[in-house]
Design a protein that fits this description.
The complex is a heterodimer.
Chain A (H helix, E strand, L loop, with lengths): L10 H9 L5 E3 L5 E3 L3 H14 L9 E8 L13 H19 L4 E8 L2 E9 L2 H10 L9 H12 L7 E8 L10 H10 L2 E7 L5 H10 L3 E3 L3 H9 L19 E2 L2 E2 L5 E3 L6 E3 L3 E2 L6 E2 L4 E2 L6 E2 L2 H11 L6 E3 L6 H5 L20 E3 L6 E2 L1 H11 L3 H4 L2
Parallel strand pairs in A: 3-4, 3-6, 6-7, 7-8, 9-16
Antiparallel strand pairs in A: 1-2, 4-5, 10-13, 11-12, 13-14, 15-16, 17-18, 18-19
Chain B lengths: L1 E4 L2 E4 L4 E2 L1 H15 L3 E5 L6 H15 L6 E6 L2 H22 L6 E5 L2 H4 L3 H4 L4 H12 L1 H9 L7 H9 L8 E3 L1 H11 L3 H8 L5 E5 L1 H4 L1 H7 L7 E5 L5 H8 L2 E4 H24 L1 H13 L21 H5 L9 H19 L5 E3 L1 H12 L3 H17 L9 H15 L4 E8 L7 E9 L2 H11 L2 E6 L7 H6 L3 E6 L9 E8 L10 H4 L2 H17 L3 E6 L2 H14 L1 H8 L1 E4 L4 H16 L4 E6 L5 H10 L3 H20 L7 E6 L6 H4 L4 H4 L9 E2 H15 L15 E2 H10 L1 H6 L1
Parallel strand pairs in B: 4-14, 4-15, 5-8, 5-9, 6-7, 6-8, 9-14, 16-20, 16-21, 17-19, 18-19
Antiparallel strand pairs in B: 1-2, 3-22, 10-13, 11-12, 12-13
Classes of the chains: A alpha/beta, B alpha/beta.
Chain lengths: 388, 729
């Protein structure tokens, strides 16, 4: 009787009904089933991303609030096991990736539930504390309210110093928003306080979200499935282009605290607990903090370590995107170069047919697509140019 | 871009053109060459307006020996402004390329409410009171009085305009209503009268349908238009309804009461005039003896747009003796109102033809057909003579006279329907007497007869062969174009079964089945939870909508819907519906989400007439009208190629080929076989996938295989190698 009720299905039935594994197959010319070849498509997507981010001023000091929608819609099961669980999992990965790429930045978490927005964690630089707080609070109910979330975040972000980039990333499951007032005013306020709002939807495109993102200069996307969602959220990890008003050169006062000696005992200013060993001392007021980067609780100085700065550096000077090469088979010069300079794999794909590959515009070395992505997204140095 | 279209050089203000725009222009050009009427269907969002404007203006530029005037009719003021804005862009482009030779004068014409710049006149709230407030200040006798008595208020803008006399002209250019107001303010001339004056000189005139179709207005505004004009009816899928509305009158109890009040007002005025200025009334009497045509404002020799409400012989005839005197005319009107009041006292629905209705008036009220026929003009003349300026007060008596004239003039194509109460509220007596017109061709006939080319165009004109029959004309070109899309942005589905696999239909015998109502409810509940922003839900009639909403309310379905979206319901009250629509739009925009319950209504009384006169089968027309409604709803969805929408035809009858084939081609081409026979859960799955897919960013220009944007170079290449014909057909 409950045939259209998913819960009534046997477990084995469900795994087929949900995965729809047959949709990931396609027939080739000779009638064989093959997995759909998406690599060219993904590569094109990646190139698009690359082109937009080449050599412009970046906002390296970011203050990002992640708003997680935990309304009724987040319990839907079209993502497995539920939208909420998928979001939590990806947020965890994102938070780690974010701090990896933006060591000088801070994140805060906000949840929306029963029409009310709650600040889960304040802005901070420690991935662990955010993840712990989020995992403890999973559970969804009620309606969602975009306006309440924006109001809360706007209030929180308006206090941060002017050199920081204010951003909100909203992970929105619901398809409607129950607001207490006029959301257009709130959007206007966000725009005035230069908050860049981005939304990732989990079900379908909503007009208001699009409007919000367009007005505040953010990006709006809708996830097709879990892997796509992961991709979309990770796009927010590299620093966005700087807003014109902030693009003026500006000196920021920073402290480089000393690491406390092994075995020293002191009370840290962040947890107000006695700690042994690990810890840093603020160079101005000599207060003890546990983690970097952070703001000193006592004197308000921004505390970072030099590796943090160094790791942000490559965003300012990205390596130029590689040119795509369509090889000529008969060209003898090409034969000698038919391996990737990065991984030494053959650039000829199956059947000795040359596949798509790229070349560095400076050193003219050839790379395969995987190395291309690795060089641009992780290594940030061209092995060819470095070895010259 | 600039390109050659046969012997015409077309100036198109954008760098790229859609292939369908190109073929649209080609067909239009051929129709203009043939000096005939044409019927063109092209989906919304493909840039019909700019294609049309740029072809016609370019056509005129290429053939300066016979200047053609463009009369562009839109349905709303908003559309008018949009059209003029596009024209302005085009005009700038053309003057940039051709210099001052391309200069044209284009103006929009609207009511005083939209054009007036006098703040005191504008303070009035609705259109009629603005008109009246204007007349109060500009009528000739008021101004004559004001010349002696400075305390009488006049309008300085109108005075300045009059003073400037023939010097008051608009320099060439494109004027939106806004521009006209700004120009008027700056020069101190009244923009309304200036625009009305300039209409005869303008190369392009943009105004509302009513100015051509409504015989009452057309007589004043459109009489000076030359025969060598191209008339365009944009968004014309409802043109037959507009025509019918222009000639339909409904009389309610309030109308009759108002008319009685008006009559006693007029009576007082007559008494006053008798005492002060008896000569005026006598002069009017003499004029009427000589016939209406000589009255001055209806030039007889000019066989222009003959007023359909008044056959041409009426203009030459003398006004019947029994209503020449003002008092006698009043008596006639009193008797008529009395008679109508008596007819409204009925208990059951009555339906009658005009002939028997007139016979009954003659028998009971002693008014013959000829007298009835002259009522409207006679009233008009009387009000002018009595120098009545607050015309908005006299709407009721005007309605009655309008009614009388129509009943007296036509013996066919109309029927009189008296309903004692609203069908939904049988306990509250609210009698209404409707004179409803069945023949759309009556109002539009003069337009076809008078103008060289009439272009009827819209996003949905399917089936395209029905329109010529409905409007009774012979198009030289009638074609339907498909939209070239970069992605499948519309997703039509035919849903035939509910989630319990039982068929759903609004067929009469299945309607009241509780299972069907439940299935529809389930479908909607599921849909509101997966579709963002707005959903419009169409019902076949008000009574069915009420019934189903009541059922849903009882079973708690309505409450479930409200968890996701707000619910708005269309009613027969225009104000309420406008308000509901407004709030619906707001709810969609601010992200709350909303469902709008609306009715795709069908006029049953017209069917019989259509069968008799135009050999259109009832079944055909019903399907046509219902599907036209459906198609229009979808047309609303797509406003540009970036938009997307879903449409669910939830009735098992749509799975039949004969019904489905009446849908416009551009919908049919997207209706995949796999989407033809769905149940609720399958439809939900498809909807989910579709919405996700559509939310992804996409490439505007289209891939190489499916070229949807042509640049000038592309076009030249295609013209040279002949592949353009391939693309078109």
């Amino acid at each position: 009787e409950d045939e259209d009720d998913n819960l009534g299905l046997e477990a084995w039935e469900r795994s087929y009904a949900d995965d729809r594994s047959w949709e990931a197959l396609q027939e080739d010319e000779s009638g064989f089933l093959r997995p759909i070849d998406n690599s060219a498509f993904y590569h094109a997507q990646y190139r698009r991303r690359l082109r937009t981010t080449a050599r412009i001023q970046k906002g390296l000091i970011r203050y990002l609030y992640i708003v997680i929608d935990l309304s009724r819609a987040a319990a839907e099961m079209d993502f497995r096991p539920s939208r909420m669980a998928v979001v939590a999992k990806q947020v965890e990965a994102f938070v780690r990736e974010f701090f990896d790429q933006n060591p000088l930045s801070q994140i805060g978490l906000v949840t929306v539930k029963d029409g009310v927005a709650n600040c889960l964690t304040d802005l901070g630089g420690s991935p662990e504390s955010h993840i712990k707080a989020l995992m403890g609070k999973l559970g969804c109910s009620g309606d969602s309210s975009l306006q309440n979330a924006l109001d809360l975040v706007q209030g929180l972000l308006s206090q941060i110093p002017s050199y920081g980039h204010r951003e909100v990333l909203i992970l929105y499951s619901a398809l409607s928003t129950c607001d207490p007032g006029d959301i257009m005013e709130t959007i206007q306020k966000c725009k005035e306080s230069k908050i860049r709002c981005s939304v990732i939807g989990l079900s379908a495109e909503m007009f208001i979200c699009k409007h919000l993102c367009q007005d505040t200069g953010g990006s709006y996307s809708v996830a097709l499935d879990e892997s796509h969602f992961k991709e979309l959220i990770m796009e927010h990890a590299p620093p966005p282009p700087a807003i014109a008003e902030f693009a003026i050169a500006n000196l920021i006062k920073m402290g480089f605290p000393q690491r406390a000696g092994e075995g020293s005992i002191s009370i840290c200013s962040c947890h107000k607990e006695v700690k042994v060993g690990v810890g840093y001392t603020c160079p101005r007021c000599k207060a003890r903090v546990c983690e970097l980067p952070t703001d000193c609780r006592i004197c308000g100085l921004q505390l970072v370590s030099s590796p943090h700065l160094a790791r942000s550096y490559h965003h300012l000077f990205p390596i130029a995107p590689f040119d795509e090469v369509t090889p000529l088979l008969n060209d003898p010069r090409n034969r000698s170069r038919s391996t990737c300079f990065g991984c030494q794999q053959s650039l000829l794909s199956s059947g000795n047919k040359p596949g798509l590959y790229v070349a560095c515009p400076k050193c003219k070395k050839h790379f395969c697509l995987e190395c291309d992505i690795y060089i641009h997204e992780s290594l940030h140095n061209c092995p060819g140019c470095e070895s010259l | 871009m600039i390109f050659k279209l046969e012997d015409v050089t077309v100036y198109f203000p954008y760098d790229n053109i859609y292939p369908e725009q190109y073929s649209y222009m080609l067909e239009l050009k051929r129709a203009l060459d043939a000096k005939g009427h044409c019927l063109l269907e092209m989906p919304t969002g493909t840039g019909k307006t700019i294609a049309l404007l740029s072809l016609i203006t370019s056509y005129v530029l290429s053939k300066p020996e016979n200047p053609v005037k463009l009369i562009y009719c839109t349905r709303t003021v908003h559309e008018m402004e949009k059209t003029l804005a596009e024209l302005k862009l085009l005009h700038n482009y053309q003057t940039r390329h051709l210099g001052p030779a391309a200069k044209i004068l284009a103006i929009g014409l609207s009511s005083r409410k939209n054009l007036c710049v006098n703040s005191r006149v504008l303070a009035a709230e609705n259109r009629d009171s603005v008109d009246a407030a204007c007349r109060k200040r500009t009528a000739s006798w008021v101004r004559a009085l004001a010349a002696e008595n400075p305390n009488i208020e006049t309008c300085e803008f109108f005075e300045n305009y009059e003073k400037a006399a023939s010097a008051a002209v608009l320099p060439p250019g494109v004027y939106t209503l806004q521009d006209l107001r700004a120009f008027g303010k700056q020069q101190g001339w009244c923009p309304y009268f200036l625009a009305r004056h300039m209409v005869q000189f303008a190369n392009v005139v943009v105004y509302s349908y009513q100015y051509l179709l409504d015989p009452k207005v057309a007589g004043i505004i459109s009489k000076e238009m030359q025969k060598e004009s191209v008339v365009v009816f944009d968004e014309a899928h409802n043109i037959d309804n507009v025509c019918i509305e222009a000639l339909s009158v409904s009389v309610r109890r309030q109308t009759l009461e108002g008319a009685t009040r008006n009559l006693s007002r007029i009576n007082q005025e007559i008494e006053r005039f008798k005492a002060t200025d008896a000569g005026r009334l006598r002069a009017e009497y003499n004029r009427l003896v000589e016939g209406l045509a000589l009255r001055g404002n209806l030039p007889i020799a000019d066989a222009w747009l003959s007023n359909p409400a008044l056959p041409s012989d009426i203009l030459k005839e003398a006004v019947p003796g029994n209503i020449r005197r003002a008092e006698h005319f009043l008596h006639v009107l009193r008797r008529l109102v009395q008679y109508l009041r008596g007819r409204l006292e009925t208990e059951n629905v009555e339906k009658e033809g005009p002939v028997s209705f007139v016979a009954s008036i003659t028998a009971h009220a002693g008014i013959d057909q000829k007298t009835l026929r002259f009522c409207y003009e006679r009233l008009h003349s009387l009000m002018l003579t009595l120098e009545i300026t607050d015309t908005d007060e006299f709407l009721h008596i005007q309605t009655i006279c309008d009614f009388a004239t129509l009943v007296g003039t036509y013996t066919r194509g109309f029927s009189i329907i008296i309903e004692p109460f609203d069908e939904r509220m049988p306990h509250i007596p609210d009698p209404v007497l409707q004179l409803s017109c069945h023949d759309a061709s009556l109002a539009v006939k003069p337009v076809f007869d008078r103008f060289q080319s009439v272009v009827i165009t819209s996003g949905t004109l399917s089936p395209i062969d029905l329109y010529p029959r409905l409007l009774n004309f012979h198009p030289v070109v009638s074609r339907s174009f498909k939209m070239s899309l970069t992605r499948d942005c519309i997703c039509p589905m035919v849903l035939t079964r509910g989630s319990d696999q039982l068929p759903v239909s609004t067929k009469f015998d299945m309607r009241s089945d509780p299972g069907v109502a439940r299935n529809y409810g389930k479908l909607l509940v599921e849909m509101v939870s997966i579709v963002p922003d707005g959903i419009v839900c169409f019902f076949v009639s008000y009574s069915y909508m009420d019934e189903i909403i009541a059922t849903w309310n009882d079973s708690g379905i309505l409450k479930e819907i409200m968890q996701h979206k707000l619910v708005f319901i269309e009613t027969q009250d225009v104000v309420e519906t406008t308000l509901a629509l407004d709030n619906y739009r707001k709810a969609c925009d601010c992200g709350r989400g909303a469902v709008f319950f609306s009715v795709a209504r069908i006029l049953l009384a017209r069917l019989e007439y259509l069968r008799d006169t135009f050999q259109i089968k009832e079944g055909d027309f019903l399907t046509f009208d219902a599907l036209r409604q459906a198609a229009q709803c979808v047309g609303r969805v797509i406003r540009s190629k970036a938009d997307y929408g879903m449409m669910i035809f939830a009735d098992k009858r749509y799975s039949r080929h004969d019904k489905r084939s009446k849908l416009p081609g551009w919908i049919l081409s997207h209706l995949r076989d796999a989407h033809l026979n769905l149940s609720t859960d399958m439809a939900l799955h498809i909807a989910r996938e579709f919405l996700r897919k559509m939310a992804q960013p996409y490439d505007k220009a289209g891939s190489i295989g499916r070229k949807t944007l042509l640049s000038q170079a592309d076009l030249e290449k295609m013209t040279n190698d002949g592949s353009i014909n391939e693309m078109l057909y």
